[in-house]
Amino acid sequence: MKRRFSHFLAGLAAATALVATPVLAEGPTSADLMNDASSPDDVLSYGMGPWQQRFSSLDTLNSSNVSRLVPAFAASLGGEKQRGQEAQPLVYDGTIYVTGSYSRLFAFDARTGEKKWEYNARLPDAIMPCCDVVNRGAAIHGDKVIFATLDAHLVALDRKTGKVIWNKKTADYQTGYSATAAPLIVKDMVITGNSGGEFGIVGEVQARNVDTGELVWSRPVIEGHMGTLNGKPSTMTGKQGATWTGDLWKTGGGATWLGGTYDPSTNMLFFGTGNPAPWNSHLRPGDNLYTSSTLAIDADTGEIKWHYQTTPHDGWDFDGVNEFIPFDATVNGKAMKLGAKADRNGYFYVLDRTNGKLIGAHKFVMQTTWADGINLKTGRPNYIEQGRPGAPSGAEKGKVVFSSPSFLGGKNWMPMAYSQDTGLFYVPSNDWGMDIWNEPIAYKKGAAYLGAGFTIKPIAEDHIGALRAMDPKTGKIVWEYKNPAPLWGGVLTTKGNLVFTGTPEGYLKAFDAKTGKELWKFQTGSGVVGSPITWTQDGEQYVAVMSGWGGAVPLWGGEVAKTFKEISQGGMLWVFKLPK
Length: 580
Ligand code: CA
Ligand code: CA
Prior knowledge:
The chain contains 2 helices and 40 strands. The protein is mostly beta strands and about 575 residues long. The strands form 10 sheets. Strands 11-12-13-14-15-16 form a 6-stranded antiparallel beta sheet. It has a 5-stranded mixed beta sheet with strand order 1-34-35-36-37, with no helix packed on it. Strands 2-40-39-38 form a 4-stranded antiparallel beta sheet, with no helix packed on it. The N and C termini lie far apart (about 65 Å). About 55% of the residues are buried. One calcium ion binds near residues 36 and 44.
């Protein structure tokens, strides 16, 4: 009896200890995620830190030895679902997590490439992705790995087993919503945007509890719609009808399809918003806020702190979703908190990230037919009116105009990198144009809502793609690398004076960060449209990238398609290191 009682006491003590010390889920915390850029042994987040500068402080691999870089191993995603592989891998605790086309998620051994598990989302037949069945990456937190699926769900899996922990619908795919961006985790919340700008959806940013998937707040980005906070209506976005006519705000577009960045020092999330719907701008006079903009959003409440619209009254599908990358620099002798964005419209913007004030705007492509510069006082483009496609008359299509950039943009989804060492942004850009015209259109749920037609055309003899090193203080292009086919992959830069990016022709390439000299390339067997990463493991520096041609370009290539007609599809994770 006495013995049993002492057992009981021991058991009670153990139980009390469990209650007193919260059982922490094993794995990275939100604080670890904020510190990702300073922890070279892992890659915990999309963009390698909340600022998503894609800069590594590693220099073991550098411009003097990169020519000796060789594959360590490769791993196939397998199956018949070989479409565009636009993902950025994550690396944690000996595992590489990577997403694949058709909403798949894989865990590979980071030393051998052996597959640990694979998760295939069961997608409905009627999903409506506008621009290939891509996925750009996952997020990890605690015991979970989380990604968005093409049927507009957010799924949290057990990192160790790949088993579903929670699965939440974020929007109705039958209305045209989908999701492809990597989630962002801030303060134990999963922050996501939505896709579907070609279907008259309403762009929105959502924050969910990372443990349960329950909604914390939501912020629609089209004026007139109500936000929510803790299950209750919060505030209206903007003022209903201020920059829209009639009911068009109800189907106004502005998809937040590329996700966002986060700045801990201001507690602001930065989300880009896509094109207004429909494309035919003559149907919707006004600025159409907050489409084609960057929004600064309070991470705790979902309130909009400031906005900057890059293309007011867009008529060319110049989605302003491009990533807004925070960086600190001294301007005119003053230390400033800045942010930069290379917009689809062909201009590179530098803003004061505390208030959204325009500091500088520079053209980063060969040609902008729609505007002649940006007015630094008003922040608005100097529009060239002949550059806007004409209004349809009756059932007749409107006047065809040649426009450059094309609707696929001076830069599309593929993320740029910022080197804290060189002070330069490395921008993956494209020089191309299009014939574009407007047509009559009416909104119909779940149907394309463009009211426009187009044909994409090259504008240079020797290239479409151009990787450009931009000085954010002067707007000068310090160097450029020209590529025959359009560039569609992300960029990585390192303290080893290196810049990495992929090409549709199948190469992962390394350049000298200061001069742009090509130092190394490796043929991966299919087009590279993923984002490369680097980390250290067992004392060696590794580089990894996904290979697998696809994305929006082959769907709408026009004459441009000649540059990639020989490229095969694929689905491989490639991992490199220096020989021992
Ligand atoms: Ca890290
Ligand atoms: Ca669009």
